[in-house]
């Protein structure tokens, strides 16, 4: 697929990012895993996770029917465990499309395309409300180097991403991986309701 080849050529660090996401999923303490991916594109991360974890079930949400068609072809061997849905992440209602429980929500090189900080922040808020206690939210995206870049409003600096996650009550917020233009930020849903953040 030409689109995917262009991504791999421009960002050769993508395999390392996907391997890091796999490691973070592997460390979760749940006996069964339902992972939701926001904007999975052609489904390569989904294929990696479904192959690595036989007990994992997967839901992918993407706005592109073309990419979803390609992803469905890639994920045919996992038909019983993989579910793909066309939806606009900036629209209302997509959280209701998810079967529960949700143990992890991941996204790779995608949220910066939704708009600006308001759109990214909205995803952080919604994801926090969907996760089981102790669940993982992971955003591996293209980031601004140090200062937020007004010319690329969807790209926030790592410190800004971390601040947004904390504002929604995520715990153990950290940047777990940086390579090339990528930064991977994570947060966990609190184990107790008393730890809920101000915006939840």
Computed over alpha carbons, the radius of gyration is: 16 Å
Distance separating the two termini? 40 Å
Mean pLDDT metric: 90
Total domains, how many? Answer: 1
- Tell me the name of the CATH homologous superfamily: Vaccinia Virus protein VP39
Strand order of the largest sheet: 3-2-1-4-5-7-6
Q: The CATH topology, please? A: Rossmann fold
Q: What is the H/E string?
A: HHEHEHEEHEHEE
Q: Hey, roughly how much beta strand do the residues contain?
A: 25-35%
Structural class estimated from helices and strands: alpha/beta
How many strands appear in the DSSP assignment? 7
Main β sheet profile:
7 strands, mixed
Proportion of residues in helical segments: 25-40%
How many helices? The count is: 6
């Amino acid at each position: 697929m030409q689109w995917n080849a262009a991504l791999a050529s421009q960002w050769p660090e993508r395999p390392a990012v996907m391997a890091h996401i796999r490691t973070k999923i592997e460390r979760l303490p749940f006996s069964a895993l339902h992972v939701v991916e926001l904007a999975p594109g052609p489904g390569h991360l989904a294929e990696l996770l479904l192959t690595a974890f036989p007990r994992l079930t997967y839901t992918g949400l993407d706005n592109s029917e073309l990419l979803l068609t390609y992803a469905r072809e890639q994920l045919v061997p996992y038909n019983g465990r993989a579910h793909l849905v066309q939806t606009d992440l900036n629209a209302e209602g997509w959280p209701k499309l998810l079967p529960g429980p949700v143990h992890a929500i991941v996204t790779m090189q995608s949220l910066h395309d939704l708009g600006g900080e308001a759109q990214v922040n909205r995803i952080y808020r919604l994801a926090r409300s969907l996760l089981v206690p102790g669940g993982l939210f992971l955003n591996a995206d293209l980031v601004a180097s140090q200062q937020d870049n007004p010319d690329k409003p969807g790209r926030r600096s790592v410190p800004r991403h971390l601040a947004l996650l904390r504002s929604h009550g995520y715990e153990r917020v950290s940047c777990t991986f940086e390579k090339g233009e990528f930064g991977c930020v994570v947060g966990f849903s609190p184990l107790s309701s008393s730890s809920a953040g101000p915006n939840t």
